[in-house]
From TrEMBL:
It is a multi-pass membrane protein. The chain crosses the membrane at residues 12-31, 51-71, 83-100, 129-148, 160-177, 189-212, 224-243, 255-273, 294-314, 326-345. The keyword rRNA-binding does not apply. It comes from Paenibacillus lactis. This is Surface polysaccharide O-acyltransferase-like enzyme. It comes from the Bacteria.
Amino acid sequence: MIRNNRIVYVDMLRILSIVAVIVLHYTAEVLTNTNDFNSSAWWISNGFNSISRFAVPVFFMISGAMILRTNIRSYREFYAKRVIPLLISLLTWSLIYGLYNQYYIIRSSMNAYEFVIDFGFRLLTDRNYVHLWFLYAIIAIYMTVPLISKFIRSCSERDLRYYLLLWFIVSIAYRFISDAVFRATEQYINIPIMNIPFFMGFLGYFILGHYLFHFDLPLKAKNLLYNLGIVSFFLTPVATYFASMHSGVLDEMFYGNYSITVFFMSVGLFILFKEKETRLSECLNHKVQKLIGSISKASFSIYLIHLLVEMMLSGRTEVDATLPEAALRLLINIGIIFAISYVTVKVLNLSKTATYILFGGRG
C-alpha cells in the first residue's frame, strides 16, 4: 500500500486493462473486414487482439476484489453510491453515442420524436453502442452485491474454492468442450445438468477477483497458472488463425471472455501483479505512483470516451501494410487515443457537474 492508500498492482492492472480494451476495439475492424489471414495487417491485429483479451475478465476481477471488501450498511446507501452513478453514465453515454451515430455517422433524417423512441428501445436492449454492454453487465452484478457480499463473508476459503471450481467447470471447461465439438461435428451438445445459473456468467470472475485478492494460492498452483497463462498468450493468436482458416471467416472461439485461454491469461496476469506488489511499491517513487493512481482512477472514464476519440481520429491499419508498418501504426494510434482520452477526462474532471453526469462522479 502506498501513502494515499492506493494498491499499486491493482492500479497497474486497471491501466493495462484499459489500454488492452483500446487495442481490442482498434484492431477489430481489420479482423472483421478481411479474410486474408496471411496478411501482415491481419496477423498484427490478431496478435495484439489476442494478447489483450484479458482486459474484460480482469476488470470484473478488480471490481470484485475492491467492492466485496467494503462494508455495505444499507441498500439505499449502496445504490446511491454505486448503482445510480453507473445508470447516469449509461444514460449519458448512450445518448452521446446514439446522437453521434445517427446524425454524424449514418446521416439520419430521423426527427426528435423518432429519435427518442428509437433511443429508448436501444437503451433498454443494449443496442446503442458496442462497448456499453459492460455497463449493463456491471450494473447487473452490482445489484446483487448487497446479497453476494453476505454470502462471501459466510464462506470459508474452501467454500470459495468449491464455488470457483464448479464455476470453472460450467462456464469455462464445458463451454470450451461444447465449442470444440460444434466445430468438429457442427452439432451442439447440451448437458442440462450443466445449466446452473449461479455458476454462470461474469459473477464468477467477480468472486474470483475477491478470492485472489484475499487468499494466497499454494506455490504449485501459482506456478501452474503462470505457465498456463504464458502458454495461453502464445496459443490464442495461433489457435485463432487455424480456427479462422478452417471456418473461412474470423473464428472468435479463443477470443471470448469465457475462452479457456482467456481465463488462464487473466488469472495468471492477476496473480503475477499481486506477487509483484511489494517490489512495485519499492521501485516506483511517490510521483510515479501518484501518476499511476491518477490514470487508474480515470480508467472507467477512459473506457466510456475512448471510442468517441477513436472514431474522430479515424486512424486504421491498412490491410496491405507491411508487418513493421502495421505494428508501428497500431502502437502510435493506440498511444494517441489513450493520451487524448486521458487528457480529455482530466479536463472534464475540472467540473464536478460534468464529472457526475458523464462519469458518475469518478475521476
